[in-house]
Amino acid sequence: MDLVPAPSGKTPVKSPVVEVEAVEAVDVAEQVEAETVALEDASSEFETDSDGSEDWDTLSHGGDTIQFLRDEQLRDGLVPGACTLDEAVAFRQRLHDIGKAAFVEETIAREAVTAKKLCTAFGIMPPAFLEGAPDESYHPLLAIALSREFARRPKLPQYNTIEDAVRLLQESKNIVVLTGAGISTSLGIPDFRSKDTGLYSKLEHLGLSDPQEVFDIHVFQEDPSIFFSIAKDILPTEKKFSPTHGFIKLLQDKGKLLTNYTQNIDNIEANAGVLPEKIVQCHGSFATATCVKCNFKVLGDAIFSDIRDGKIPECTACPEAIAQEALKPQGLKRKRSSNGQHKDRKEEFDDSSDDDDYEIPTPGVMKPDITFFGEDLPDEFGQRLIHHDRELVDLVIVIGTSLKVAPVAEVPGILPRNVPQIYISRTPVSHTGFDIDLLGDCDVVVSELCRRAGWNLQHHMIPADEAVEVTPLEGHESRHVFKVVGA
Ligand SMILES: [Zn+2]
Fold first, then answer.
1. What is the pLDDT of residue 436?
2. What is the whole-number distance in angstroms between the Cα of residue 366 and the centre of ligand 1?
3. Distance 360 CA to ligand 1 centre (A)
4. Integer distance in angstroms from the first to the last C-alpha of the chain?
5. CB environment 314-334: b (16+ within 10 A), e (fewer)
6. For 108-119, what is each residue's pLDDT tens digit?
7. Residue burial 252-266, b: 16+ Cβ < 10 Å; e: rest
């Protein structure tokens, strides 16, 4: 955690309510609120100073939205009165070197630079509503900017090129792989968090006020048919997997896979042959299902045909319990409610009550063990990350996720900062600093990495004669764009 206090009086460090961009706000606001807190607690004992909560693209500040600056804007001198990119980089380095209190002393307190200008060094655009105000007015913003920067893991300067990435793959022995929806989209599995391309557009006709309600546990308890009306669309239909899943399996075969933390609930890692003990399904999965009444558990396969038919799968254990209940003498019937659940019934054995509290016993609904909004995340995540992987990990590879959903979003900040981190996705993220960004279709990126590493990643979706062109992203020595030649 961040142990450096803010300069008293002037710069409250408490972050404002995080107002995520429209698309994300639908998906993550609740989860992040709940989970960030839990994870902060878990990580504080390890003195990490990632607080996560401020690593977003927009923040609200007294109702006005704060605009963030990109390094390109500083480099190109597009913002009047802003730092140059060189100045900004120097200020950031200095902050990490000496800490927040000393940094503020050295800069603002000595009037070496204005708070307004310093905000730009940390990527915050001086807002129009403060124009003309005294420099002190910028102190709260600067506090946000400094906390945000300080929480950020600094990029390791020695890792930049594709060759660096390939060498890291070859030399690392304990790789943590973080994955998200992007590794399954090439299989036609929709990203259910994405508003445009995902499932949410299909949900409008269900009359939900917020599409996220489909994954809300309270909505499920009230009417499971809503979830099961779309479940078939996110259920893996065949035992297929993408080249990227194949890549994770290849890391396992080479004895290099420490853990694959996945946000995906499709359980496709298993299709590729990744061992259950190598996977943490951070949001649960369809691999198993549990009766909401008696907690009877089955393998996901057992309910897949019902799901595909659009039916609500029912518990097979409940009817037996109901039948046994029926055989009992009348007086004992209420000893246990027919569905095994604790209900607010009258006292057990209370025969004086009227009979009108008898319900017709029905079997429970089988709920896939994916984590709904409003449910606790599987414990395994924090336990394994902090008490096992943190000591061992020597390379982090993040694939196909924008890392905006906790808890996976917190992982890069929790792991030791000297462990190199590689990012593979279509677009770079600005809120977390990776050492090397490999941009493009993740199936293409991993197949090219394997080719260069001399590894044999065979998959029917990778053409035998595939040629991939890699070009640096202008202005970034550590960002590289992967494109299939002729595509
Ligand atoms: Zn049951």
1. 96
2. 8
3. 15
4. 46
5. bbebbeebbeebeeeeeeebb
6. 999 999 999 999
7. beeebbbbbbbbbbb
Supply the residues annotated as catalytic. Answer: 283
Q: Please tell me the distance from the alpha carbon of residue 357 to that of residue 375, in angstroms, as a whole number.
A: 29
For tokens 């006005």, name the residue: 64
Per-residue pLDDT at 337: 45
Task: Report the distance separating Cα 275 and Cα 328, nearest Å.
Answer: 45
- With cut-offs at 50, 70 and 90, classify the pLDDT of residue 192: low
| pLDDT higher than threshold 90 for residue 216 | no
Helix (H) or strand (E) holding 297: strand 297-299
pLDDT at 353 over 80: no
Q: Which residues are annotated as a binding site?
A: 291, 294, 315, 318
Q: Does residue 342 carry a pLDDT above 50?
A: no
Whether 449 contacts 459, CB under 8 Å: no
* Cα–ligand 1 centroid distance for 293 (angstroms): 5
| Sheet strand arrangement including 366-370 | 297-299, 284-291, 366-370
pLDDT tens digits for 203-214?
666 677 676 778
d(Cα 26, Cα 210) in Å, to the nearest integer?
8
pTM above 0.70, yes or no: no
CA dist., res. 223 & res. 214, Å (int)? 10
Could you tell me the distance, in angstroms and rounded to a whole number, from the CA of residue 341 to the centre of ligand 1? 9
Specify binding-site residues for Zn(2+): 291, 294, 315, 318
**321 CA to centre of ligand 1 in angstroms:** 8
3-state secondary structure of 37: helix
For residues 336 and 131, give the distance between their C-alpha atoms in angstroms, rounded to a whole number.
69
Q: Are 314 and 225 in contact (CB under 8 A)?
A: no
